Amino acid sequence: MDLKQLMIGLLVVASSPMIASSAMAQQQPMTAQTMDSQLDGLYGTHEIYHHFFDALKDSIIQRHKDQVAAVIRYPLIVQLNKKQVKIKNKQQFIKHYDQIITPKIEQVVKEQQYVGMLSTYRGMAFGNGEIWFAGLCPKKTCKDHSKTVVKIIGINNFMQ
After folding, report:
1. How far, in Å, CA of 141 to CA of 107, rounded?
2. What is the pLDDT, as a whole number, of residue 135?
3. Residue 21's pLDDT band (boundaries 50, 70, 90)?
């Protein structure tokens, strides 16, 4: 056995525990605690996002249009009649609510669980990105999480 073969063999043996450990970690189901930890790592807190998720899900399921409209960052670009439209305020959103929050989006919201939600540095999403929300800060830096306001930042109602 030459030196090159020996080095390759040692590399394979040394990396085996890491591969096995990684595979096991991927197979473990996510829990509320691991979801909270993931959000704490991404956003510095999880409480406001979990609360927002629960409140938004309830508002959409109950069809409380005014409550949904109140938690949107305007303007919001959506698709109406196969055209992109800029929704400028709550009144305009409520007027077009049924075209924006379609039955498919309602179903996605009903089925979405907090644990396992898509979460990235840009925000969190219901389903495959049908509704996005994120923490917004009144200033460019938001070290004090008590000043963070969570809002809907995107509704992709064209994904039908």
Report:
1. 36
2. 93
3. very low
pLDDT of residue 26: 52
β pairing state of 123-126 and 118-120: antiparallel
Q: In 3D, which of 122, 129, 105, 118 has the Cα closest to residue 57?
A: 105
Collapsing DSSP to helix, strand or coil, 155 comes out as: strand
d(CA 5, CA 41): 41
Lowest mean pLDDT across 27-36, 54-63, 122-131: 27-36
Domain locations in the chain?
Answer: 1-30, 31-155
The pLDDT value given to residue 18: 42
Residue 49 and residue 41 in contact, taking contact as beta carbons nearer than 8 Å: no
Do 112 and 126 form a contact (C-beta atoms < 8 A)?
A: yes
- Cβ atoms < 10 Å from Cβ of 128: 9
Q: Which residue has the tokens 């949904």?
A: 68
